[in-house]
Amino acid sequence: MSAAAGIERAFHMLEGRWKLVILFHLFGGALKRFSDLERAIPGISQKMLAQQLRQMESDGIVRRIVHPQVPPKVEYGITAWGQTLCPALDALLSWAEQGPETE
Fold this sequence. Notes:
By secondary structure, the chain is α+β, with helices and mostly antiparallel strands. The protein is 56% helix and 14% strand.
């Protein structure tokens, strides 16, 4: 796979307005219920949150944990592979905070 194809694949997995925000709330191994994520991310609709979580679960970034109880309890967490994104996103945040230098 070429570098361009690799970066395109990575961006495809992370595209969407909310995926990086969702990941921010899951970094560090925190397990969150759907309602916790919904409260933590103002402006996201239930439909969009569910869609973004399903896509990241399908890509292996997020795991969905269903506890067999009544009423059902579902939690979301980041996978070990998804956790490896943290340093890259920290670097991106640092880059953005530096802003363009004036010459």
